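User: Reviewer 2 asked us to show a designed sequence for the structure in our supplementary figure. I'm pasting the structure tokens here. Could you produce the per-position amino acids so we can include them in the response letter?
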């Protein structure tokens, strides 16, 4: 039983980390910086894809380094999120296999964590039912 509870605690920690990284990604700009030469002047644009369209947004020179840094941080967070998803999948399988929670309950806890709910309280509520 202690092993199962440790797995549930590990699940809670991974869900908290997942929600934090997910929220960070949502608050950072996506895309890349494109540099254009027009009439001898250099202009920088942040470009990203929405469906089939490429959207461009002019980036003033004063904000260029900040936007580049934010895009780099987003890309780092996206790769981190991939690793967290792998860990989350492994731990979810263990918890579901032990019969403590169902996969649907784990998904509900993840969605709640992204919305700002207390993960530990949500899991506690599910375990006591």
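Assistant: Here is a per-position design you can include in the supplement:
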């Amino acid at each position: 039983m202690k092993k199962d509870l440790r797995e549930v605690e590990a699940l809670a920690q991974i869900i908290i980390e997942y929600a934090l990284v997910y929220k960070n990604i949502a608050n950072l700009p996506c895309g890349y910086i494109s540099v254009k030469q027009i009439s001898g002047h250099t202009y920088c644009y942040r470009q990203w894809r929405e469906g089939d369209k490429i959207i461009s947004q002019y980036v003033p020179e004063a904000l260029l380094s900040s936007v580049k840094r934010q895009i780099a941080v987003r890309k780092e967070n996206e790769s981190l999120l991939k690793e967290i998803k792998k860990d989350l999948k492994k731990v979810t399988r263990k918890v579901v296999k032990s019969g403590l929670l169902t996969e649907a309950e784990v998904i509900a806890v993840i969605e709640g964590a992204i919305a700002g709910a207390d993960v530990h309280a949500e899991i506690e509520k599910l375990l006591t039912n």
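For the response letter, you might also mention the following. The chain has one domain: 2-29+65-128. The chain has a mean pLDDT of 94.
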